[in-house]
Specification:
Radius of gyration of chain B: 20 Å
Oligomer: heterodimer
Number of strands of chain A: 10
Low-confidence stretches of chain A: 244-248
CATH superfamily of chain A: P-loop containing nucleotide triphosphate hydrolases
Shape of chain B: globular
Largest sheet of chain A: 6 strands, mixed
Mean pLDDT of chain B: 90
Shape of chain A: globular
Strand order of the largest sheet of chain A: 6-7-8-3-9-10
Strand order of the largest sheet of chain B: 1-2
Helix content of chain A: 40-55%
Radius of gyration of chain A: 19 Å
Number of strands of chain B: 2
Structural class of chain A: alpha/beta
Helix content of chain B: over 70%
Distance between the termini of chain B: 27 Å
Structural class of chain B: mainly alpha
Order of helices and strands of chain A: EEEHEEHEHHHEHEHEEHHH
C-alpha cells in the first residue's frame, strides 16, 4: 500500500533519515520505533508532505506522492497526526472534527453527522461541546486521532498518540486503534511505549540515527541485539544476556 | 433550537426594520451622517475581518483595496465617463485582483503573522507612492468628482441616500460573514487561523483558501472605495492609501470582536460614539484623543475577545469534566 524507498533527509550536515525503505501492507498495523532523535517524526513528515525529501520516493497505491503538499496527500487518503498535539484551540471538539469531515463533503449537516460518528468511535461523544483548549492530554491525543479519522483516510500515520498517557488510558486507546484497523483503515504508527507496540503491531521497523537497524514482528524485535544496543547503549545486549544468566 | 432560531429571525427582522426607519425618525442630517460613517466603518472593518478575523491573516494594509477601488471607479468616471453604478463593479474587481496579487506574492512564500502584516503595510505605502507619481491617477492633485446627484452616479441629495447605501453594504457584509460561519470554506479559514499545519494535514488547501479570503476582502474594500469617492467627491493618494484607515479597519474589528459576524459593527458603533462624545465634552485640544486612547486600551486589555465577548457566553474550558 505504502512504499517508502531510499528516503533521505539531511539538516545541515546531519543525516536525519538515511536511505530508509519501508513497506506498509493494507489492513495491518505497522509500527516504527527508535530512540529519541532517531528520525521517526522526520520520516513521517516526509511521507505526509510536510518536509521535502532530499532523495528517495514515497509511493501510495501506485501513485508517486513524493514531495506533494500535505492536503494533496490527504486527498490520496494518507493523514498524519501530530506528536505535539495541534488542536484548533478555540473551537469545540465537534468543530475540530468537522474540519476533518469537511474533507469529504461540503455539506454542513453531513459533516456534522460524520464528526459525531467519529467522536463516538474514539470515545469522545461526551466532549463534543468542550473547547479543545480545555481538553486533557488524553483528550487532545484522541482529538488528533478523531480529526484525522474524519477525513476518511485509507492510511493513518499516528505519531506517538500514547505518549504522556497513563496505563488505563493507553489500554483504552489501544482498543480504539484496533477498532479503527478492523474498520478497514491501515495504520502506521510511531511509538515509544513498548507495551503498546507489542500489543498492537503486526510488524515493526526500528530506526536509529536515521538508519533502519531492524525489522520484524514485535517479539523478534524485542530480542534483537542491535535494538537493545540502540536503546540501552553499547554493550548492553551482552551485559543483559550475561546478567540474565547470573540472576536466573 | 427552533425557539432560538425564531428569536434570531425576529431580532434580525427587528434590526432591519429599525435601521431602515432611522432616517425617518432622525431628521437631523448631522446624526444621519454620523450613522452613515459608522456603517461605512463597520463595512470596512468587516472586509478586514474576513481575512484577519476569520482566516487569521493580520493585514496592516487593508486600505490598499479601498484606495484601489476608489481610483478604479473614479478614473473610469472622469476619464471614460463610465457611471459609478457600473464603476463600482470595476472597483470590486480591481480590489479582488489586487488581493489576488498581494495574496499570491505573500502566501506563495509562506509569509505569516507579523511578516504578512509588514508586507501589506509596505504594499500600502508602495501603492500610495505610485498613485502619487503616475499621471492617470491625477498624481498628488488627486481626482475631483463632479457633483451630479443621481443613482447612476451613486450620489444623493439627501444624506439618507448615502445612509441606505451604506446600510445595504453592511447587510451584504453581514450576510457574507454569516455564510462563512456556516460553510465549509469558513470552517477551513478558521482552521487555518487556529493552526495552519494541522489544517493542511486534514486536507485543507491553505494557499487556495487564503487566496479566496484575500480576494473577498479586496472585493469588499473596492466597493467601499467607490462609495467614499462618490460621497466626498475627492480622492488623492494620502486619503486613498492612508495608514489611518488601515488601523481603523482593524481597530473596529478588534474592539468589537474578531472573527464574529457582528464584531465590526459593534466596534464601529462604540468607537465612533466614544470619539464623538469625547470630542463634544472635552474642550482642551488633544485631550479627547487621550480619553479615547485610554478607553481603547481598557477594552483591548480587559476584553480580549472584544465587546462581543460580553454578550456571547462561551462555555469555559472545564478541566474536571474534560477527562477522556
Amino acid at each position: 500500500m505504502l512504499e517508502v524507498s531510499g528516503l533521505s533527509k539531511s539538516f545541515g550536515g546531519l543525516a536525519a533519515v538515511n536511505q530508509v525503505n519501508i513497506s506498509v501492507d493494507e489492513g495491518r498495523i505497522i509500527s516504527l520505533i527508535g530512540p529519541n532523535g532517531a528520525g521517526k517524526t522526520t520520516l513521517f513528515a516526509m511521507v505526509a508532505g510536510f518536509l521535502k525529501p532530499d532523495a528517495g520516493t514515497v509511493t501510495f497505491e501506485g501513485h508517486d506522492i513524493t514531495g506533494q503538499k500535505p492536503h494533496r496527500i490527504c486527498a490520496h487518503g494518507v493523514v498524519r497526526t501530530f506528536q505535539v498535539t495541534q488542536p484548533f484551540a478555540t473551537l469545540s471538539t465537534l468543530e475540530n472534527i468537522m474540519v476533518g469531515a469537511y474533507h469529504r463533503t461540503a455539506n454542513r449537516h453531513l459533516a456534522e453527522e460524520q464528526a459525531r460518528a467519529v467522536a463516538d468511535q474514539v470515545g469522545m461523544g461526551a466532549l463534543l461541546e468542550q473547547a479543545a483548549e480545555g481538553l486533557t492530554v488524553a483528550g487532545r491525543k484522541r482529538l488528533e486521532l478523531a480529526r484525522a479519522l474524519a477525513t476518511g483516510p485509507k492510511l493513518l500515520l499516528l505519531d506517538e498518540v500514547m505518549a504522556g498517557l497513563n496505563p488505563a488510558e493507553i489500554d483504552d486507546i489501544v482498543r480504539v486503534i484496533k477498532g479503527i484497523r478492523d474498520s478497514g483503515v491501515t495504520i502506521f504508527l510511531i511509538e515509544h511505549v513498548m507495551k503498546a507496540v507489542v500489543n498492537l503491531s503486526d510488524f515493526t521497523y526500528v530506526l536509529n540515527d536515521g538508519v533502519l537497524i531492524a525489522e520484524g514482528t514485535p517479539s523478534e524485535i524485542a530480542a534483537d541485539a542491535n535494538v537493545i544496543e540502540a536503546y540501552l547503549g553499547h554493550g548492553a545486549a551482552e551485559r543483559m544476556s550475561g546478567d540474565g544468566a547470573a540472576h536466573a | 433550537m427552533n425557539a432560538l432560531q425564531n428569536k434570531t429571525t425576529l431580532l434580525v427582522v427587528a434590526g432591519l426594520v429599525a435601521s431602515a426607519l432611522v432616517p425617518v425618525v432622525i431628521v437631523n442630517k448631522f446624526y444621519i451622517d454620523i450613522l452613515t460613517l459608522i456603517l461605512f466603518s463597520a463595512f470596512l472593518g468587516q472586509s478586514w475581518n474576513i481575512l484577519g478575523g476569520y482566516a487569521g491573516q493580520f493585514s496592516f494594509g487593508g486600505v490598499i483595496f479601498f484606495g484601489t477601488g476608489a481610483y478604479a471607479s473614479s478614473i473610469l468616471l472622469t476619464t471614460f465617463g463610465i457611471p459609478p453604478l457600473i464603476g463600482i463593479f470595476a472597483a470590486i474587481a480591481a480590489g479582488a485582483l489586487t488581493g489576488a496579487f498581494i495574496g499570491f506574492i505573500s502566501f506563495r512564500y509562506g509569509l505569516r503573522g507579523s511578516y504578512f502584516a509588514l508586507i501589506t503595510l509596505a504594499f500600502s505605502e508602495v501603492f500610495r507612492t505610485i498613485a502619487n507619481s503616475v499621471e492617470f491617477t491625477g498624481g498628488g492633485v488627486g481626482i475631483f468628482i463632479k457633483h451630479a446627484p443621481g443613482l447612476a452616479n451613486l450620489q444623493f441629495i439627501h444624506p439618507a441616500g448615502y445612509y441606505y447605501m451604506a446600510l445595504g453594504m453592511v447587510i451584504i457584509s453581514l450576510a457574507i460573514a454569516w455564510w462563512l460561519e456556516r460553510s465549509r470554506f469558513g470552517a477551513q479559514l478558521i482552521a487555518i487561523r487556529e493552526n495552519e499545519d494541522a489544517a493542511e494535514a486534514l486536507g485543507v488547501d491553505a494557499f487556495k483558501c487564503k487566496m479566496y479570503a484575500i480576494m473577498i476582502t479586496g472585493a469588499m474594500g473596492g466597493a467601499a472605495g467607490t462609495f467614499y469617492a462618490q460621497k466626498y467627491l475627492y480622492i488623492d493618494p494620502p486619503i486613498s492609501y492612508s495608514i489611518g484607515t488601515s488601523v481603523e479597519m482593524l481597530l473596529v474589528t478588534i474592539v468589537g470582536g474578531m472573527g464574529t459576524i457582528f464584531g465590526p459593527l459593534i466596534g464601529a458603533f462604540v468607537l465612533h460614539i466614544v470619539n464623538e462624545v469625547a470630542r463634544h465634552f472635552i474642550d482642551t485640544p488633544g485631550l479627547s484623543l487621550i480619553v479615547y486612547g485610554v478607553i481603547l486600551i481598557a477594552i483591548i486589555g480587559y476584553l480580549p475577545n472584544g465587546l462581543i465577548g460580553l454578550f456571547k457566553r462561551r462555555k469555559k474550558p472545564d478541566k474536571e469534566t474534560s477527562d477522556a
